[in-house]
Amino acid sequence: MHYIYVPEFNGQKDSIPEEELHHLRVKRISDGEVFGILNGRGRITYVYFREGMIFQKGVENVSQPKDVFICSPLPQGKRGSFLVEKLSEIGIKGFVPLITERSRRKVNISKLEKHVIAGMKQSGNPWKMAVYPPMNLQDVVREFLGHSLYFGDREGEKPEMGIKGVFIVGPEGGLSENEKGFLLENGVRPLSIGRYILRVETAAIGFALLSML
């Protein structure tokens, strides 16, 4: 099934943006073929076209995603867009571009939002993943006070499947000893998802998938 993103769909064809109608034309949606409209707040409206008019077939309300957040530096180029799109497909609650001693990259939030929507449409996820402004480790600890916080470390404990919380992934080269010390002093637990050195996006997606099992 194909999906489009229309946050304010009112049941009428004219409430669907031209960009999304173009997407349907590219996908060659035929008369009578059902497709889903995602509103980004948990609702999927199933509709179809018939002789230029739109008809509703049904509505599905999906429960909110788990409290799972990924905080990681944004990899450069296509690796960064790949990461955001895949996290959106998996269905986590939010992504935080992380600033560390070894990663200080400018982030275009509006561009990331487009990749979030692409992930929704690919997977049929009706919840729009939140993209936070860039934060450093101190910001993350303050922002997510009351949540369970973890950071990736090859020497850490093995996580349980379905674990929820805020997962901090270090940059290429890893977190510095000072940064690890700060996290440990603030009760952030080290977790390991393997003995080998992983790319940022591999570790981030790994934690996201682990939390959904």
Structural notes for this entry:
The protein is of the alpha/beta class. It folds into 2 domains: 3-61, Beta Barrel (Ribosomal Protein L25, Chain P), CATH 2.40.240; 68-212, SPOUT methyltransferase, trefoil knot domain (Alpha/beta knot), CATH 3.40.1280.10. It has 6 helices and 11 strands. Strands 5, 6, 7, 8, 9, 10 and 11 form a 7-stranded parallel β-sheet that branches. A 4-stranded mixed β-sheet has the order 1-2-3-4, sandwiched between helices. A hairpin with a 4-residue loop joins strand 2 and strand 3. The longest helix is centred in the middle third of the chain and has 15 residues, at 109-123. It is elongated. The chain starts with a strand and ends with a helix. The model has no long low-confidence stretch (mean pLDDT 95). Its EC number is 2.1.1.193. Specifically methylates the N3 position of the uracil ring of uridine 1498 (m3U1498) in 16S rRNA. Acts on the fully assembled 30S ribosomal subunit. Belongs to the RNA methyltransferase RsmE family.
- Helix count, per DSSP? 6
Q: What is the fourth-level CATH superfamily of the largest domain?
A: SPOUT methyltransferase, trefoil knot domain
What's the Cα radius of gyration? 19 Å
Distance between the amino and carboxyl termini: 24 Å
Percent strand equals 25-35%
- CATH class identity of the largest domain: Alpha Beta
Give helix % range: 25-40%
Q: Given the C-alpha coordinates, what overall shape results?
A: elongated
- What is the H-and-E element order? EHEEEEHEHEEHEEHEH
Q: Count all strands and give the number.
A: 11
**Total domain count:** 2
InterPro entries: Alpha/beta_knot_MTases (IPR029028), RsmE (IPR006700), RsmE_MTase_dom (IPR046886), RsmE_PUA-like (IPR046887), tRNA_m1G_MTases_N (IPR029026)
EC number: 2.1.1.193
Pfam families: Methyltrans_RNA, PUA_4
GO molecular function: rRNA (uridine-N3-)-methyltransferase activity
